[in-house]
Amino acid sequence: MKFFCNPINVNYRYQFNADPRNPKMQICREAADPSMICFQGKYYIFASMTLSVWVSEDLVHWESRRLPESLPLYDYAPDVRVIGEYVYFSASKRGEICNFYRTKDILNGPYEEIQGSFDFWDPNLFCDDDGRVYFYWGCSNAMPLWGVELDPKTMQPLGERKALIEGDAWSKGYERVGEDHCNYPKSEDEIDIALERFFKFQGQAAKEQTPEEYIPLIRGMLSDKPYIEGAWMDKYQGKYYLQYACSGTQYNIYSDGVYVGDSPLGPFTLADNNPYSYKPGGFLPGAGHGSTMWDKQENLWHTATMRISKNHDFERRVGIWPAGFDADGELFCNQRYGDWPMEVEDGRMDTWKNPKWYLLSFGKTMTASSYAEGKEPGQAANENVQTWWQASSAESGEWLQIDLEREYTVNAVQINFADDGIDIPVPGKIRGTTQARYIEEEDYVTRWKLEGSLDGKNYFMIEDKSEAETDLSHDLVVREEGVQVRFLKLTVLEVPYGQQPCVSGLRVFGIGDGEKPKTPEFEAVRENDLDMMVKITDGDAVGYNILWGSSPEKLYHSYMIFGNEQRVGALVKGKEYYVRVDAFNENGITEGNTVKLLVPVIE
To answer: What class is the 521-596 domain?
Structure first.
């Protein structure tokens, strides 16, 4: 068997962001907005700001390969589609005409340029069964997603663009912005006040020089309305599934929703299962702005953007999850244990199969050779990618150790390196039409050793990457046969730019031989149209998975927590829901009982 653990284990390139919102250069790794395709027997992922394409033969082992400079590599949200014997490529460039490119050989080219005729943001190309080609785009909280038919030879529009869908955070809770959907959109009166304050701050000259057509965009920015973006189209059994991202890439609730129609340009109706891609909890949250693809065995996979957003809003990674269509044609995605090791099988997969190994490291005792104030060792065992252990020096040989507190069979260790306040000169020329930056072109290395011990005194080597030529910030060590171990010690030898080593997660997975948690007792109450509160009143688990959906058989949504209660703000107005809470510990998963979501009676 083959295993991977999100985020995808590949080189994430550093970005030197000249963000006008911050006077200091912001440096972090980024990859986002992935387009995944299967072409000539291999899988390819094109993601924003990587200068590369990622290539795999099995969806597990990925190699980063540089793309030619002739492509718009500094433009966001690259879209890639297979049409006939060609792969078509385009990317975002608001305010300038965007061109298309095509090739018969992704890695070696050449790429033929096809002149475009309009500007767009977050593009998506779709070829129907009859050979007709359609194009979708949009990224705004003031404008809809657009669609138009294109001439398949010239890529010129055939007719006028058509508005397809718009955001509505008053009826779709999952479209609200903020951590856990904490913000409601402002009313028109509140936006008027915010606009007045905005221009008062900018000055009278700025107000007079602002074109009238920009006012709706400024109002949108001030409104807390959701961005509707990241279109992707799939066809299944004669129906058209228009997917879109919403709620903001910097939040834990970044997600993908879906509408369904009978024709490529609609009209579209909101699908029953929404959002279909949603991962607000766990170690690395976020599952928005992605693509959906069938593999060589006709399994469906969804890839999307995951959020870190500590050094910069756009500090992001890429994840992959199994997806599918149910008997009623509802598109779904399984993200219940979406950042635990996943098994990729040959042939057809069981999309809802539980993980083979369980989380062993949460809350366990951590020690280190040294640590910076506020960046203690325990930060690497709290299942939060936004906190980390940082060594107090940049010397080679700083180490981090976890005590699992008893002997376990360990099958996988994910080592997640973080970045913290890198302050170095920009290595190259700042460029880019969408956001000024420099993308690191040099290849660095991340080197370390992972050792195990049963007694904390005598150690044996588990993985030695002291001479690695790779820079993998989310590396995964797999021992399918298992290793008996209590202590795991990570010694960091070299990281990019000679910074102080930082680890956000030394995550350990395996199988204990104790009892699974008991069936949790809980209460789920709908507080209003869009929110429910789930409180676990009796449980003995390490963590819980809150599951909900439109019927007891369709609990497609999930929220992993490590506490006893959680507000879930992703409900759709007018829909009924069913809820289940599953419990997990080091020994296994216990599925809970399904209940209908309670609606409190107002006296």
So the answer is: mainly beta
Span 193-208, pLDDT tens digits: 777 777 776 666 666 6
The pLDDT tens digits of the residues spanning 163-191 come to 999 999 999 999 999 999 987 666 677 66
**Is residue 602's pLDDT more than 70?**
no
Work out the mean pLDDT of the chain and round it to a whole number.
94
Answer whether residue 44 shows pLDDT above 90.
Answer: yes
Answer whether 358-511 and 521-596 agree in fold: no
Contact yes or no for 422/344 (Cβ under 8 A): no
* Torsion sign, CA atoms 195, 196, 199, 204: positive
Do residues 289 and 256 touch, judged by C-beta distance below 8 A? yes
Provide the residue ranges of all domains of the chain, joining segments of one domain with +: 31-185+224-344, 192-218, 358-511, 521-596
Unique residue bearing structure tokens 């279909």: 276
The pLDDT-based confidence of 542 (bands split at 50, 70, 90) is very high
Q: For residue 131, give the nearest of 112, 106, 150 by alpha carbon.
A: 150
Specify whether the CB–CB gap between 434 and 120 falls below 8 A.
Answer: no
More confident residue, 257 or 140: 257
**b/e burial code for range 100-139 (CB count within 10 A of at least 16 → b):** bbbbeebeeeebeebebeeebbbbbbbbeeeeebbbbbbb
Length of the chain: 603
Q: 31-185+224-344: what fold?
A: Tachylectin-2; Chain A (2.115.10)
332: its two tokens: 């779904």
Place of tokens 């066809």: 235
Question: Which tens digits make up the pLDDT trace of 381-430?
Answer: 999 999 999 999 999 999 999 999 999 999 999 999 999 989 999 999 99
User: Which option is the CATH number for 358-511: 3.30.70.2390, 2.60.120.260, 1.10.10.10, 1.10.10.60?
Assistant: 2.60.120.260
pTM: 0.94
Q: Rounded to whole angstroms, how far apart are CA atoms 533 and 597?
A: 10
Closest CA to 447 of 487, 420, 417: 417
E strand map for 49-142: 52-56, 63-66, 79-83, 86-90, 100-103, 112-114, 124-127, 133-137
Return all residues near 69 (Cβ < 8 A) that are at least 6 apart. none
Separation between Cα atoms, residue 150 and residue 168, nearest integer Å: 29
